[in-house]
Design a protein that fits this description.
This protein is mainly alpha-helical. It has eleven helices and no strands. The protein has a domain of 209 residues: Orthogonal Bundle (MetI-like fold), CATH 1.10.3720. Helices cover 71% and strands 0% of the residues. Helix 4 packs parallel to helix 7 and helix 9 packs antiparallel against helix 11. The N terminus is likely disordered.
Amino acid sequence: MSAVLPVKESAGMGSAPAAESKPVAAPAAAAVAAAPPAAAPHLPSRSIILARRRARILRVVAPVLGFALFVLVWQLISHTGGQLPGPAKVWTSALEVFADPFYQKGPNDQGIGWNILSSLKRVGLGFGMAALVGIPMGFMVGRFRFLDHMTSPIISLLRPVSPLAWLPIGLLVFKGANPAAIWTIFISSIWPMIINTAMGVRQIPTDYMNVAKVLNLSEWKIFTKILFPAVLPFVLTGVRLAIGVAWLVIVAAEMLTGGVGIGFWVWDEWNNLNVQHIIIAIFVVGVVGLLLENALMLLARHFEYK
């Protein structure tokens, strides 16, 4: 018997070779379909939107209601039989005053616009000199402990003194009402700038100063690279407080010294028993002071150090 042996077919005998299995790339559409959907942008809920809208409305409505309540109380007080004019009379008088605010009929008879500008000029001079002296002095007081101990009793003694108490000293020394008023503004507005600047210098981390010592930096480099950027918010806070004090002082000083200015205008209208003009001056002083403070707050936010 002959054995039958299995014969292996060779590739060259016309039979088809076995196909190799290769991975087939999936179509692009299938890949896109298989990808997870992109997360939708997070949108605030309806309750959050309504809460924000309500907060914006309240920020507008609340001041309007407060001012309306103030006018209502003012109207009620004016009807109690006193001599205080009501809002309508003051409004009519204000239209007449601001119809020609820059008239000139003599050295002591000028429009309210000239009086405001004269007061602002005195405030600018006194406040500017206080800034030139107070801010550098605050840096030195905060930087050097010995100078801090030396000046602390003097500042604590003179800071609580009433601004008008300095006016006679100015009249005695400068022999004139205008320089005496500027001196009073200077001595009254210098303290907030010294104190706030020195406080900012003291709150600088000691690590900064230790690094400056290790690097052997000069005092000018320490001032420009470390002290000034870090203390700038404190400086601007002191400036904002000082401008409020300066504008407050000038009205009282001009009432005593005379001349041209919003304080003198108030006193002159009182001598003429024109109460409507006095109330107008009160609102003008408040508006100008508010504008000055808001301007400095805007400046402080612009130069905020981070």
